[in-house]
Amino acid sequence: YGLYSSFMGPFVYAIMGTSPQVNLGPSALLSLLTFTYTNGTNSDFAILLCFMAGVVQLIAGIAQLGFLVEFISLPVVSGFTSAAALTIASSQVKGLLGLRYNADTFVTTWKSFFQHVGETRLSDSMLSLGCIIVLTVMKALKDIKIKDKAADEKGCRKAKVLKKLLWFGGVSRNAVVVCLASLIAYFVYEDKSNPFLLTG
């Protein structure tokens, strides 16, 4: 169901939505929250949970209950955001280092990490580090200031093109990293070698 949940939300929102900045689909936080309440059950329960959450959101939208968010204090939102960031980061550590263990909570995740840290795979760690470096560098590209006020029209046009290319590179960094990592994995597995741990 992963592919369906990835494109159906944006597809429906493209027709009925009003905000271009809304994060749709199976984000990391929603996936972790869903896992918390449906772990150990049939996958149908996860589908039911998502359906019921959608029904509640639809009813809230029809009833125009968005103003209720104003009653949530800033410290609550800040604490929730910080906790979500820590939880998501903790859940990604084992994938970054190529470790394999099962953990359900924040505490058990780090306990299992320290128990298995000696099993770290060099190839997975290097690929992870490379992807993080590329993401960080490409993110900084769109913040580079280019002066587009050149003396001649040709120089001004080149500066504008370069500025757009840098912006596009910064925006498309996730897709670029996914494509590069996929190519590396493809060529590696074509050579019948298995240096990377599959996380799916």
Automatic annotation (TrEMBL):
GO BP: transmembrane transport
Main location: membrane
Record's keyword annotation contains Iron: no
GO cellular component, one term: membrane
Record's bilayer topology term: Multi-pass membrane protein
Classification via InterPro entries: SLC26A/SulP_dom, SLC26A/SulP_fam
Ranges for domain SLC26A/SulP transporter: 1-190
Location of this chain's protein in the cell: Membrane
Transmembrane regions: 12-33, 45-69, 165-189
Keyword annotations from UniProtKB, A to Z: Membrane, Transmembrane, Transmembrane helix
Entry protein name: SFRICE_038839
Species annotation: Spodoptera frugiperda (Fall armyworm)
